[in-house]
């Protein structure tokens, strides 16, 4: 693999046929071997694996045709052929998915590795290292998604459930996270069953700071993914710091899902974030 051009959003890379075959076979193998994609792999869903593998197969087949490439795919920005190798534009999210797939292939429990992937482990590992070290790590520097992901891992390692209060005669344990603005207060009620160490539900309320009894908005209590709650905390921390630019922050939407995988909550910064970072938070200039 060779880098032609690189931005934070898209990479122009040159692949050999063997490298594309590794990616194609790995997509197919991981699709059939793994089910918990959200926990293991970022940037690609289980349902996208086979269509992506089919697209790569079509790219390889088209290289043998005189008319060249005439492919339209949601997975690839553009394709060209140069000296028997493929120059492909891939978005950051797709490369992140490819890296995750190759990582699971290299370090997961794949039996009959060479017969399933078509290559030995050292060859697949070399491609994985090239994509991760030379491409993905350079593209993701300072990206909001990366900062949220890394902060989420830190929170997970430090999280201590021993300080949770069990209310007498209550089957639930509750934690309340409060986000205070000058004029309004947002409260996140995190709930879990008393025998579990994992939060299972979330409720959100919005009230006026000076009149907290006057409840303006109250959400329904729904199940929520534990990892999503950590992502929510990481995102809110990112919002009130100056780690990234306002433009990057305004382009980032945090989506949370409930336990049934339907959409629960979308959060996005609006207007000028710099005016309400740190201590000078103004509710009128920012909406969540």
Describe the structure in your own words.
The chain starts with a strand and ends in a 20-residue tail after the last strand. The chain is of the alpha+beta class. The strands form three sheets. Strands 5, 6, 7, 8 and 9 form a five-stranded antiparallel β-sheet that branches. The protein has a four-stranded antiparallel β-sheet with strand order 1-2-4-3. It has a two-stranded antiparallel ribbon with strand order 10-11. It folds into two domains: 2-140; 151-285, no CATH class. It has helices at 17-33, 37-40, 46-62, 92-107, 113-117, 121-139, 144-158, 226-239, 246-250, and strands at 2-6, 10-15, 78-82, 85-91, 172-180, 184-193, 201-208, 215-218, 222-223, 253-257, 263-268.
Provide mean pLDDT, rounded.
76
User: From N to C, what is the helix and strand string?
Assistant: EEHHHEEHHHHEEEEEHHEE
Radius of gyration: 23 Å
Distance separating the two termini: 42 Å
Task: Please give the number of β-strands.
Answer: 11
How much strand?
15-25%
Structural class: alpha+beta
Question: Unreliable stretches, pLDDT < 50, 5 or more residues?
Answer: 162-171, 273-288
* Major β-sheet profile: 5 strands, antiparallel
**Quaternary structure classification:** single chain
| Shape by Cα distribution | elongated
DSSP helix fraction = 25-40%
- Supply the number of structural domains: 2
The number of helical segments is 9
């Amino acid at each position: 693999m060779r880098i032609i051009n690189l931005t934070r959003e898209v990479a122009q890379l040159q692949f050999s046929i063997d490298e594309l075959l590794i990616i194609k076979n790995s997509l197919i193998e991981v699709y059939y071997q793994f089910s918990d994609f959200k926990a293991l792999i970022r940037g690609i869903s289980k349902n996208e694996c086979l269509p992506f593998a089919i697209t790569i197969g079509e790219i390889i087949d088209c290289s043998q045709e005189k008319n060249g490439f005439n492919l339209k795919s949601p997975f690839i920005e553009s394709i060209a052929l140069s000296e028997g190798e493929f120059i492909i534009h891939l978005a950051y999210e797709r490369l992140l998915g490819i890296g995750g797939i190759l990582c699971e292939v290299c370090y997961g429990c794949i039996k009959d590795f060479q017969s399933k992937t078509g290559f030995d482990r050292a060859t697949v590992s070399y491609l994985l290292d090239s994509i991760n070290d030379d491409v993905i790590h350079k593209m993701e520097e300072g990206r909001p998604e990366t900062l949220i992901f890394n902060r989420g891992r830190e929170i997970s390692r430090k999280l201590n459930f021993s300080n949770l209060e069990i209310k007498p005669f209550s089957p639930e344990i509750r934690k309340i996270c409060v986000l205070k603005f000058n004029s309004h207060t947002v409260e996140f009620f995190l709930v879990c069953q008393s025998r579990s160490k994992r939060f299972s539900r979330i409720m959100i309320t919005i009230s006026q700071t000076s009149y907290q009894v006057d409840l303006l908005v109250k959400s329904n209590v729904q199940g929520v993914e534990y990892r999503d709650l950590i992502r929510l905390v990481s995102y809110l921390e990112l919002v009130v710091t100056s780690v990234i630019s306002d433009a990057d922050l305004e382009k980032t939407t945090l989506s949370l899902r409930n336990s049934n995988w339907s959409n629960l909550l979308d959060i996005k910064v609006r207007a000028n974030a710099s005016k309400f970072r740190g201590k000078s938070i103004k509710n009128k200039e920012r909406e969540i």
